[in-house]
Known about the structure:
Mean pLDDT: 97
CATH topology: HIT family, subunit A
Structural class: alpha+beta
Bound molecules: adenosine monophosphate
Number of helices: 3
CATH class: Alpha Beta
Number of domains: 1
CATH architecture: 2-Layer Sandwich
Amino acid sequence: MSDCIFCKIIKGDIPSTNVFRDKQVTAFRDISPSAPTHILLVPNRHIDSINMLTGEDEQLMGHLFTVASQLAMQENVAENGYRLIVNTGSHGGQTVPHIHLHLLGGAPMKHPMG
Length: 114
Ligand code: AMP
């Protein structure tokens, strides 16, 4: 999608601090971090939101979580724990319409959610 900010980051048209990249997924640091570690993991292929997923995306979404697990270890937040969030739609607080998994860690998370 030509006007999607995350597609532009994936293409390298907008600068980002990348921490991971493979054929399917790109991960970069959030520009406005909500925790000491705040990474966004995005599929390289544009998908608006969780609402648009089909059975063909199951391997991709599983891979997104596997990469999140690896990055949590790389960032040294795995042992103490972290939070993974996928905001969806306006009530879910999604502001960028390209699926992304927030990886938040490095401090205790607030609870309850919602
Ligand atoms: P969400 O509200 O779940 O859609 O999350 C979108 C996230 O993208 C927010 O946490 C923003 O801070 C982050 N964000 C927006 N633009 C950029 C950018 N250019 N580079 C890195 N993160 C960004």
